[in-house]
Specification:
By secondary structure, this protein is an alpha/beta fold. It has helices at residues 17-27, 46-53, 68-81, 98-101, 124-131, 166-190; strands at residues 7-12, 34-40, 58-60, 86-89, 108-112, 135-142, 152-159, 191-196, 199-204. Helix 1 links the parallel strand 1 (7-12) and strand 2. Helix 1 crosses helix 6 (166-190). It is globular. The two termini are 21 Å apart. Bound molecules: 5-O-phosphono-beta-D-ribofuranosylamine (GRF). 5-O-phosphono-beta-D-ribofuranosylamine is lined by residues 14-19, 47, 90-91, 111-113, 174, 177.
């Protein structure tokens, strides 16, 4: 009997280039997973069109007048109905509660455009540029209830001095993010993850 592929739920708010990287990797057989649901909290997110072009079900879940509990409940019900195994925050611009996360323990990951714990929160690339750091990059981490604070799974480093200007740095970080996100997902799906404090380790199963 064929094994069913692990199921991913992707939460987005915007352009969706990282969603596209995951969709492409799944379609090309580079990632043994399927994207079962894409949820956006923004109606105009281009990521929604990307999902539809790949025939992935979408849910538009706007916060609007919903309380945080109601908003998260709506997402939770859809994710559970889609039998999602892993949740990927790919440019999703909201902080999830401990209540939400408790339904997917150590199964929610986030992508961030800096070498965490440096520059958490908004405008990380611009802030790293203005601070004059020599190296920055991107991080994939497990999500906790903080803002970009969960255990780090993997990172990529970019030399700022190798960039022509801020736009070039943004481009290089975004390119690195696409590779990092797919590569981290592949490790999560094919290795055993252990966590000691905030340190994470992958080992062969
Ligand atoms: C990425 O830079 C990610 O690190 C941040 O939001 C951006 C999303 O880009 N959290 P996209 O929507 O995947 O193109």
């Amino acid at each position: 009997m064929a094994h069913s592929l692990p199921s991913l739920g992707i939460l987005v708010s915007g352009f969706g280039s990282n969603l596209q990287a995951i969709l492409d990797a799944c379609a090309q057989g580079k990632l043994p997973a399927k994207v079962s649901l894409v949820i956006s909290d923004q109606a105009q997110a281009y990521a929604l069109q990307r999902a539809q072009q790949s025939n992935v079900p979408v849910l538009l879940c706007e916060k609007g007048t919903l309380s945080k509990i109601e908003f998260e409940q709506k997402m939770l019900e859809a994710l559970q109905k889609a039998s999602v195994d892993w949740i990927v925050l790919a440019g999703f611009m909201r902080i999830l509660s401990q209540h939400f996360l408790s339904f997917f323990p150590q199964r929610v990951i986030n992508l961030h455009p800096s070498l965490l714990p440096a520059f958490p929160g908004l405008n990380s690339i611009e802030r790293a540029w203005e601070e004059g750091v020599k190296y920055t990059g991107c991080t994939v981490h497990l999500v906790d209830e903080g803002c970009d604070t969960g255990p780090i799974l993997d990172q990529r480093v970019i030399s700022v001095e190798s960039c022509l200007d801020l736009e070039d740095l943004k481009k290089k970080i975004h390119e690195a993010e696409h590779e990092l996100l797919v590569s981290t997902l592949l490790k999560l799906l094919t290795s055993k993850l252990s966590i000691k404090g905030k340190r994470t380790f992958f080992s062969h199963v």
